[in-house]
Fold this protein.
Amino acid sequence: GDSVTQMEGPVTLSEEAFLTINCTYTATGYPSLFWYVQYPGEGLQLLLKATKADDKGSNKGFEATYRKETTSFHLEKGSVQVSDSAVYFCALSVLKLVFGQGTRLTINP
Amino acid sequence: SAVISQKPSRDICQRGTSLTIQCQVDSQVTMMFWYRQQPGQSLTLIATANQGSEATYESGFVIDKFPISRPNLTFSTLTVSNMSPEDSSIYLCSVEDRTRSTYEQYFGPGTRLTVT
């Protein structure tokens, strides 16, 4: 079945560091890919998406590129802030939404 | 995107009791979903709720334990029945946005349930 694998956390970085959270997927068909973010005590927010190969999704300084050849959708940000501390979920959708296990990110000042 | 609210935001319940969670959307939507997020875990789909038909449950979830109502296009409820401590989780509803060409889901703020 369809599945998503994320890099294990927790991830701790200093402010202004470069961030990469790896995400790979397995899917039958052609999925849409998503990154969701969950801030402490809140629900999930859609961060960015990509719907076909080589698409780049971007929002709030975060980017991810749909790489069909490597079945990946890694999340990147050039300079993280303390306010980026949250849990990040990679997800795919063919017939339904399937989530990765989540990666907890903590940014220290 | 749709604005989704849930009630209650949190609750502490005794084992053996039941809790009904409400989900309200500010626009009409065809498909609504209920998820469970156990402590420190990812989201697991419980069921899909379409207006005018019975909910479709995922493997491992049954109607007797998680009855769902969908009386109209803006509202749904999930009941957690005969609760045990293992039901302590965050329960989230979501809706699918079909005004866009891509499949997107938007989530409510969640209901944090603790069963003692």
Notes: The interface with chain A takes residues 1, 4, 33, 41-43, 45, 48, 92, 94, 102-110 of chain B (CB under 8 Å).
